[in-house]
Design goal:
six-stranded mixed sheet, alpha+beta, about 15% strand, three-stranded mixed sheet, about 675 residues
Length: about 675
């Protein structure tokens, strides 16, 4: 599970390596290194609704050479699979990207014209989203130039784009990358390339009724690493592995993982990397489970990673994992401070408002670390999570534990690049603003930790009940994210946090957190969608259903008040302890839904409170937001790791450099990590 950046802190409005060198030959071939800046600046550029930032890697210079090599090899492995994410997102993405990049590089005409500027903006938006669908809304990105203009550009550079790929840029076909709306065939209505174009939701359900599910009581994540297609009238999985679908890129991933294994920090780490390599070679989900267990229990060392087909948000049926990698360096000081949460995980479980039958009697192995990201790729880049809790398989989490990480330098970069303008616009009064400015960042950090460490690890599914992707179906992801949010919210207003030494004033931190969550869930996150649209992204949906249900439940006692001041609407929390009680009741119900697999209750909660938007409030939010120039979405270019070698080609040092522009990094990636054909 991952946590995306929210919009409720003062700062918020919301890598990795070069191709480097392994020998002298590679050194000669890769001299086009990305330029660096003498003075670090978090902000790179802004276009459309996107702000591109950069981040530093604190602690990298303190690593040993062996550790630096490990980081370098792991980031190389991550980037080697970059094209997989593009193809997963949409079947025409790689063909379209290749054509657009060719035009951008080779066009000799007037690049200062308004039309070419529009073309450049479109290309940057496609780069940022890893495809032609918006990274957050899932809507197809609409060009502001004409089809005739693009055809002319393609002709100028002698590039051919298939008729279907050309037309789909401008027409209404495949309008949604992921469509989880009720009342439609979610698979047929989604452009995501996890299924053949003729596969239906019923086909998916039918196939997985009889598909291999693993040993009894230890189910595999069926469908996680394959595409479901129809061949000769039969449903079959095209497995993503060496020798299978995406095999060429996966072989490159394996190449770098084998080098990483050779410089592992300890035997356990090397064993874990070996299982990951075996998984990529075989495609076996039983091996994936072995790897996840080994990874979750491998807690020694300064370097860690996330690598694989992991999060299932992009699958309308919740089976298939998007390719993702994050390479991490331990932040020793913050990890020591936050370890207290994982050490007290059982206390939080025992004192939660869940039904006693739904509580875990023994919370196993929840580890929490603040880390500094050294590199990201795939679904984690350019738009990155700020917190992650893995593995996702419920039985592994219950029996072997999980790892939770907060991406410290990513959060720091967001905060450094942010401002308080929107806060002052949407917060009701000076007291609310002052609380946010003083305690908001800490509240944000603690909510991330509680969400990942305590939230995702809490509760248990009743015996005999299937996995949420089978029982809750298209509502599984938003229900899980909302449930974890509610755990965090419930404990953010608890004196236990002060007793544990995590805060100096638990009540003020809790108030800042509650103000911010309600403000965001009912208003400010609406700047991210177009007027008239429903909310569809799972995290946004969960924030609204949590906030809207709580608002409704508290109406009798005026717990949350809708106030109009100077002609503007605000939502004001009047009774924080009653709101905490409401959050507790909703948490209990969310866990019951998960534990019992109650699809109808999940549907009623999500559709009734999380999807539809009050159009009058939405219009007002957009109007009030117009004066702010900062884009609502942020993401990152990645630091570039450059190797220094001796006369024999041995690495003697690894240096961190920074890209100058977003375009520069994307062109660099296209040249050095382009391993898949345009059709796969």
């Amino acid at each position: 599970m991952k946590l995306r950046k929210m919009l409720y802190t003062a700062a918020a409005v919301s890598l990795l390596v070069s191709c480097g060198v392994e020998n002298k030959k590679e050194a000669k071939e890769t001299k086009e290194e990305v330029k660096t800046e003498a003075k670090f600046n978090h902000e790179v550029e802004q276009f459309a609704d996107i702000k591109v930032l950069r981040y530093q890697i604190p602690g990298f210079e303190e690593l040993t050479l062996k550790e630096k090599k490990l980081v370098y090899y792991l980031t190389q492995a991550g980037l080697s699979g970059r094209d997989i994410m593009w193809d997963q997102n949409y079947r025409h993405n790689l063909e379209i990207r290749t054509a657009l990049e060719n035009v951008n590089t080779n066009y000799k005409g007037d690049k200062s014209s308004e039309d070419f500027k529009k073309f450049t903006t479109y290309l940057k938006r496609v780069w940022f989203s890893n495809g032609i669908h918006h990274h957050y809304s899932n809507d197809k990105i609409k060009p502001t130039f004409s089809k005739d203009y693009l055809v002319g550009l393609l002709k100028e550079v002698n590039v051919t784009l298939s008729a279907e790929a050309l037309e789909v840029i401008f027409n209404e076909k495949d309008a949604k990358k992921v469509n989880k709306k009720a009342g439609v065939d979610n698979v047929l209505a989604s452009a995501i390339n996890f299924y053949g174009p003729d596969i239906t939701s019923k086909d998916v359900e039918t196939f997985y009724k009889t598909a291999y599910k693993g040993p009894k009581g230890q189910p595999i994540e069926a469908g996680l690493n394959s595409k479901l297609v129809r061949e000769n009238g039969k449903l079959v999985e095209k497995v993503w592995k060496s020798g299978g679908m995406y095999g060429v890129a996966i072989d490159k991933i394996v190449y770098w993982l084998e080098k990483a294994q050779g410089v592992a920090e300890n035997e356990k780490q090397a064993e874990t990397l070996g299982l990951l390599i075996e998984y990529y070679k075989t495609g076996s989900l039983d091996v994936w489970d072995k790897y996840c267990i080994s990874w979750a229990t491998s807690t020694e060392g300064n370097i860690d990673w996330i690598n694989g087909f992991i999060e299932v948000y992009n699958d309308p049926k919740g089976y298939r994992g998007s390719y993702e990698t994050v390479v991490q360096i331990k932040d020793f000081d913050m990890s020591k401070k936050m370890k207290v949460l994982s050490d007290n995980a059982q206390w939080f479980e025992d004192n939660s408002p869940l039904d006693e039958n739904h509580k875990k009697k023994n919370v196993v192995g929840v580890s929490y670390k603040t880390v500094n990201v050294a590199g990201e790729a795939g679904d984690a880049s350019p738009s990155t999570p700020i917190g992650v809790n893995l593995p996702n398989n419920n039985w592994i989490r219950q029996e072997h534990g999980s790892k939770s990480v907060s991406l410290g330098n990513i959060i720091g970069a967001y905060n450094s690049a942010g401002g308080s303008g929107r806060l002052k616009e949407f917060a009701h009064d000076e007291e609310e603003i002052a609380l946010e400015l003083k305690y908001g960042k800490l509240a944000d950090k603690l909510h991330t930790a509680l969400h990942e460490v305590i939230g995702h690890a809490s509760g248990q599914i009743n015996e005999g009940i299937g996995q949420p992707k089978e029982t809750l179906k298209n509502y599984a992801s938003t229900m899980e994210e909302g449930r974890a949010d509610l755990v965090g919210l419930y404990y953010l207003m608890d004196p236990k946090l002060q007793e544990l030494g995590l805060v100096s004033d638990w009540e003020k931190v809790g108030k800042a957190a509650y103000d911010g969550y309600i403000r965001n869930g009912l208003m400010t996150q609406l700047i991210r969608i177009n007027l008239g649209d429903d909310i569809e992204e799972d995290h946004m949906v969960n924030r609204q259903w949590v906030s809207a249900w709580s608002f409704e439940q508290g109406k009798k006692d005026n717990v949350i008040e809708k106030v109009t001041k100077d002609g503007k609407i605000y939502f004001v929390v009047n009774d924080y302890m009653k709101l905490r009680e409401i959050f507790g009741r909703l948490l209990k119900e969310a866990q019951r839904i998960k534990s019992e697999g109650d699809f109808e209750a999940a549907k009623a909660l999500v559709e009734g409170y999380g999807v539809k938007v009050d159009q009058a409030i939405h219009k007002e939010v957009l109007d009030r937001n117009e004066k702010f120039t900062s884009a609502p979405y942020s993401g990152f270019v990645n630091p570039v790791l450059i190797t220094e070698v001796d006369v024999d080609g041995n690495i003697t040092n690894v240096k961190v450099t920074q890209p100058t522009t977003f375009e520069e990094q994307m062109n660099f990636y296209a040249k050095n990590y382009n391993f898949l054909s345009v059709k796969n």
